[in-house]
User: What shape does this take?
Amino acid sequence: MSKIRTNSAPELFLEVRRGNAEPLHVQLEQQLREGIRGGRLLGASNLPSSRALALGLGVSRGVVVEAFAQLAAEGYLVTRPGGSTGVADSAVVAAARAQPARPRAPRIEFDLRPGRPDLDLFPREVWLRSARRVLAEAPSQRLGYLDGRGVPELREALSTYLNRVRGTAAGADAIVVSSGFTQGLALVAGVLVARGVRRVGLEDPGLAESRRVIAAAGLTVVPIAVDESGLRVDLLAAADVDAILVTPAHQYPTGAVLAADRRAALLDWAARGDRLIIEDDYDAEFRYDRQPIGALQGLAPEHVVYAGTASKVLAPGLRLGWLVLPASLVEPIADAKLRADLGSPAIDQLIVADLVARGDLGRHLRRMRPIYRRRRDALLLALRRYLPALKPVGASAGIHVLAWLPSGLDAARLVKVAAEEGIGLAGYSSPTATPDGIVFGYAAASEPAIREGISRLAVIVTRTGVSRRT
Amino acid sequence: MSKIRTNSAPELFLEVRRGNAEPLHVQLEQQLREGIRGGRLLGASNLPSSRALALGLGVSRGVVVEAFAQLAAEGYLVTRPGGSTGVADSAVVAAARAQPARPRAPRIEFDLRPGRPDLDLFPREVWLRSARRVLAEAPSQRLGYLDGRGVPELREALSTYLNRVRGTAAGADAIVVSSGFTQGLALVAGVLVARGVRRVGLEDPGLAESRRVIAAAGLTVVPIAVDESGLRVDLLAAADVDAILVTPAHQYPTGAVLAADRRAALLDWAARGDRLIIEDDYDAEFRYDRQPIGALQGLAPEHVVYAGTASKVLAPGLRLGWLVLPASLVEPIADAKLRADLGSPAIDQLIVADLVARGDLGRHLRRMRPIYRRRRDALLLALRRYLPALKPVGASAGIHVLAWLPSGLDAARLVKVAAEEGIGLAGYSSPTATPDGIVFGYAAASEPAIREGISRLAVIVTRTGVSRRT
Assistant: This one.
């Protein structure tokens, strides 16, 4: 062991050990580097000579010379005129800065936030089985640089699956895999901007995240009203938009199904003006009291971009989504995907392809549907019992319910107070005259947790804590 | 079975089977939907009555009524005045369009393209072992919506690993995980633009992909010359740039190591003007005849963005990279990552964290180094033997070698002709006066393939096919 006494305190203790996995000179380098970085060897201080240090450490002088040479090459040390070695002035002292702890969000005990599947029921065993197959069988080139559209196995599997289950008309060549819906929408928005599109219609009420993504691309967002039959397609003509983002199978957040005559009118609007419909099919796999509604895309594949996601059917953490595109958009979107990140991770894509092709995704959904249905029933029952003034709508499908608040009740305030008491919710406040609403997600909480959460929420509502605005 | 005769040919055959997994009405819906989409049921044609069709199919009338109702709700069918059912005019016929086959790139028999590790040697067993552990142990919330910085397990593992192996001064809180280097650089470029940066310096010669990413963010790219001691730091002052992208440990493509005095001068330049160094540390884990050069970031963490990637040490298809950031950039970059795609996939991040923390990545690298070293030796020997006029440089580290071409030889032309004969290469043509070069990657080809590829390349070069420009 050796002490280096610097011209200001403190001392630096150095120690090298034979038999360590690292060679002696590497051990010495690491300790000197750490010492300089930690500010324990100051810029002005000369080091002992290599001979003296070697003696102190009980190593050959060559070990020290090699360590000094390495640190000089890296810029930590300089050789001074006269041959002494010192710490370089440019070795900016970077004392380990303690990062300020982030303010912790209060723990959510009752998670009724929308858009979240039950992650405890993620099919881990099934995923691992597919991972084993993929790692045993995938050709090596799948681990290399990728096609912008995604691995062919996944595009093939999705094509068959979506055409059968969602009524799309999707060739594998029309599919581009994205890192979730958010990225997919951003890619589409970017390509639309490049094609001269300026105004895009969005459902109102609608998903705030989509509004942000479209606006971030430089597009003007035009809100289009929604009623109990979905998007007010009759308002499109006057809105002067080149594209519209819709949730026809299960409107977010109202849960409305786009009525048949409006579907026809919407497709007609798109076809006549060569406009684009972006169909956000985020949770159509979950339905309880009604038949599934097939995708619009199947009716007009050249006018509809269909967007799906693994976030609700499997898990958001997979960050996997897919776009089914009109032929003219496939290349531009695949190029945009390459420019963004050179493609989504291959192994995950291959695993999901295996899950879909083997029917494991279908089996998982069949397992989840009755569970989510019971949770939905528990939520509706609890709302009727504890908060009868709230009017839930759109409960026949999906994994959330919108409940309009009695006029004058402030959604944002209620969400905030509820969060402080451990209840996770999302609020909806309309910029227009409609009342505020609360969006309850029921997939991620157990039936007892839903009942308990709603009964506690009722206490908060009746307490003066959330006052009426009137 | 039942035939529907449309008013123009062809007929549509319908068949429903009991005992099929799908209910009868769903089978009927699917076939009608397909028939309409395939153009086999034209817009003008009325369908038989539900009673007649039920009789033909041998099912109850309720089955047909339910199928018709569903397809009407989806917009495929309309009920005409008088009660007959027909195909909706808005059901735009989308006959399955055969996608034009993409022109196939010629097969690469000898893959000497740079930047590609040997994918046949990807540690599949080790990956699967980590996957098993992650799926058994990871908390459910890791599968939910993510932090913009990446999962904490990976940031912790990278912090320890990079500080030890690359000499960084990286706290886990300073790391943001990205979908590969390309996305990481795009995120940094976007944040720089938002902060008012306009001009960014790039090494010349350098990586064309980086130039593209930086320019795409709206920044002006300023080329800064490189010589055998790396970036000409003395040219920076006159270049009037606010940031510089460098490859100090192993310049791409020349392989030069940034000299110690230039490292000091570069850090000084950054500190004095509050400028930013972006350190692309793409392949520093591979070195053969020299000591590793520690990262610049360790000397000045507040002036350097360190960028690393799993593409060379594991596989490009993982699309995983990492940034070590100055404190003031962590939040903006994490926010930009959320805006881009809500974070990188969680399971992959957890697996890489496990690989790194358990030392499996280190073991993999120790296994690969001698293999790549032998391939490099085979390449240098083959070049000396078959193409002695080429002058390879920068061969002591990395997984590529740059060879300057004799003056007058055209790199782009040589690369093109070689590709047609199954040899994959990359060329470098300088916009300035220096000669062209070929960048040989040697990691992805076996020693015999390297020898054979170079001997065939020599034939191409000596053949008149690639003429001198003089």
Chain B has 14 helices and 18 strands. Chain B touches chain A through 88 residues (CB under 8 Å). The first helix of chain B runs from residue 24 to 37. The radius of gyration of chain B is 30 Å.
